[in-house]
Amino acid sequence: MNWKKLFLSILLDLVGMTSFAIPGIGEFQDMIWAPLSAYILMKMYPGTIGKVAGTIEFIEELLPGLDFIPTFTITYFYDEFIEKRNKKSFIEGENPHARKNIQD
Question: What is the pTM of this model?
Answer without folding.
Answer: 0.78
